[in-house]
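Researcher: Sequence recovery benchmark, item below. Answer with residues only.
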């Protein structure tokens, strides 16, 4: 009798377990369908590749990933959901107890362009180095380490032939994690160098959403020491950069964009928005996000103007203008319209939204019919002012009340620049 009860209990527990599993599978399938619809399923760059033959469905990868819904379990196996949101921490691969996950670039059908670099981070052009995410390997710790190692190599190669004449030993472009790592090593090695950034100190980290949880690993910072970070926030990490920079007296020229790079007899000439620097070596630590395109209208320099939407929830009861006709602009307008009390205008110079995903078209049409977004087609922004914006629509000028402007009209990608200066680029199709 007790055998029967035990067997029944076991069957009952198994049935409960299977039921819970199939409920979870159903949810994950729904999320995948949504990700397909929004175009988030196809990875754009680095992402996990799960080997189903090895996966035992422990779910460790799902729990380890700090981003939301990148991996889920279907029928006891790992599956990608919003693969394009992966930032490449690799926490999933590390957590997998059976090594079923590898991080790869691109997919079999969609290649990713990665510049060729030697193990010392030098490109096919002697004297031009690439460190950090631009070289394909994201993550804060990797970027810092690569910047540091590239400059250590430069310093070794220069030997005693450094700081000579009016030429820099190294110009470091970019002040994200890779540029900071490179600059600290350059200072430690006593190189004559300059670091510049088109934006602010911190790189991509500076643009994370407010209070974002940042996962990283302990890392050695030249002249500062070992930083034992594992989980922190965007704000604390930026505070740490600032204290490192202060303590090491590093000088970083912000708001200075590299606009050109030419070869010269003794090395290179780095041309920027503010001047020119002759350099023996150049470290490109410019990440992969590129430079946002600007409108070039008066008032664009006002602090209320931004080129990416990080946190729609910070806007309530605001008058907002989104400029652009692509998916980013449409998604931003819809996200802003969802917050209570906002008044959102989407301005686009084209006559219709031809390039956007079908789902965005449907959502935009819904928002227009609910009057939560007003669309100004065939329109151009003429001027951005403190409390309003002047817009010309089909030859007619109007002034609309405005608190914030989001300009989402694309940008120049770094690969185009690398190509133009002759740096060799390789396409990776789902390889590690
Ligand atoms: C939303 C999000 C969340 C993430 N979360 C994590 C996380 O939790 N943990 C983690 O380890 N990684 C995370 N990452 C990845 C990490 O932020 C990047 O891998 C890292 O910042 C790369 O550093 P980098 O120095 O190579 O490039 P970036 O940080 O992109 O810095 C490049 C710098 O170069 C400057 N620049 C570009 N072009 C020019 C030019 N022409 N002239 C002058 N300056 C120029 C830019 O202004 C920028 O400051 C995340 C990424 C994103 C997008």
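Model:
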């Amino acid at each position: 009798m007790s055998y029967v009860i035990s067997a029944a209990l076991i069957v009952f527990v198994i049935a409960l377990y299977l039921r819970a599993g199939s409920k979870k599978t159903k949810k994950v399938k729904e999320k995948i369908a949504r990700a397909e619809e929004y175009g988030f399923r196809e990875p754009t760059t680095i992402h996990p590749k799960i080997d189903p033959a090895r996966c035992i469905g422990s779910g460790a990868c799902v729990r380890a990933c700090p981003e939301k819904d990148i991996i889920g379990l279907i029928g006891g196996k790992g599956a990608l959901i919003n693969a394009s949101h992966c930032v490449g921490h690799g926490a999933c691969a590390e957590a997998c107890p059976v090594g079923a996950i590898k991080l790869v670039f691109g997919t079999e059908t969609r290649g990713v362009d990665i510049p060729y670099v030697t193990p010392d981070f030098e490109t096919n052009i002697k004297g031009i180095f690439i460190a950090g995410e631009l070289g394909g390997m994201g993550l804060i710790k990797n970027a810092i380490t690569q910047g540091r190692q590239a400059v250590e190599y430069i310093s070794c190669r220069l030997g005693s032939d450094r700081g000579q004449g009016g030429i820099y030993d190294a110009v470091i472009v970019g002040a994200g994690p890779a540029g900071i790592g490179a600059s600290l090593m350059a200072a430690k090695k006593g190189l004559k160098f300059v670091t510049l950034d088109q934006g602010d100190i911190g790189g991509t980290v500076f643009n994370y959403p407010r209070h974002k949880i940042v996962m990283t690993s302990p890392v050695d910072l030249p002249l500062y020491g070992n930083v034992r970070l594992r989980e922190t926030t965007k704000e604390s990490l930026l505070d740490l950069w600032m204290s490192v920079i202060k303590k090491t007296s590093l000088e970083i020229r912000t708001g200075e964009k590299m606009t050109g790079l030419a070869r010269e007899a003794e090395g290179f000439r780095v041309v920027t928005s503010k001047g020119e620097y002759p350099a023996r070596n150049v470290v490109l630590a410019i990440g992969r996000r590129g430079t946002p395109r600007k409108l070039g209208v008066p008032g664009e320099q006002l602090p209320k103007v931004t080129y990416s939407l990080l946190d729609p929830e910070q806007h309530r009861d605001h008058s907002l203008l989104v400029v652009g006709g692509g998916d980013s602009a449409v998604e931003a307008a819809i996200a802003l319209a969802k917050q209570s009390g906002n008044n959102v205008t989407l301005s686009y110079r084209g006559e219709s939204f031809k390039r956007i995903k079908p789902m965005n078209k449907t959502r935009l049409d819904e928002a227009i019919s609910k009057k939560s977004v007003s669309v100004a087609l065939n329109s151009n922004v003429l001027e951005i002012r403190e409390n309003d914006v002047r817009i010309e629509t089909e030859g007619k000028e109007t002034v609309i009340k405005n608190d914030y402007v989001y300009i989402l009209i694309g940008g120049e990608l770094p690969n185009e620049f690398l190509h133009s200066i002759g740096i060799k680029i390789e396409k990776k199709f789902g390889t590690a």
